[in-house]
Amino acid sequence: MDQEIEDIQIKSEVQDDILLAALKLFAEKGYFNTSLIDIKEAAGLKTTGMIYQHFTTKHMIAAQLHTSILDSLSISIDDIRRTNEKSSEQLRGIVDLLFKLTDDAPDVLRFLLILNVNEFLPEAKPLHESVPFKKIINIIEMGIKDGEIRNISPQLGYAEFFGIINNTLRLVLTGFLDRKADFYQSQAWLAAWNSIVKK
Questions:
Q1: Tens of pLDDT along 64-80?
Q2: Is 119 part of any domain?
């Protein structure tokens, strides 16, 4: 029984190594410029056959990454919503999370915001239709109902608010803005919030 648990842990660790190596390579080189051999080498595996024990194709690796990132983001948004009552506090918490991820885990945000995921995952929904971003639209809708956000369509509120946030993060991730995301966070938050707040 102990051997079986240990084997499962090792298999899980190898799978995590593959996913992390692929994430870094996709973010740096792009999906189409990354080969399974590149992933094998970056993950420190002896053969590409070790990848096939976990994923049959590069597409499966990308799909798993996409799902895992969106699931983690969705869970984090749920935690933020549980611990903050007002829409403004919830949106601020999400902005804080995205800026922290940009500084601490830039490959994750590059995968979501820079790569054109639909080129290699055509079955993936657009970002604004994914579960975590639908939750953000719901937060904006709640803010409109509570009178905290001006009376506009929630989708337009999302576009205005997250247009500013996403563009700021993209400019940091591509190096156009040359400081860490944290440096621009309060300015971006104020600009984004002022674009939707009821005055």
A1: 999 999 999 999 999 99
A2: yes
Q: Which CATH number fits the domain that encloses residue 29?
A: 1.10.10.60
Q: Which residue has the tokens 């400081």?
A: 179
Backbone phi, psi, residue 135, to 5°: -65, -35
Q: How many CA atoms lie within 13 Å of 163's alpha carbon, on the beta-carbon side? A: 9
**Domain total in the chain:** 2
Is residue 61 a part of any domain in this protein? no
**Total-model pTM:** 0.88
Cα–Cα–Cα angle for 195, 189, 181, nearest 5°? 140
Two structure tokens written together for 79: 């935690």
* Residue pLDDT, tens place only, 13-43: 888 999 999 999 999 999 999 999 999 999 9
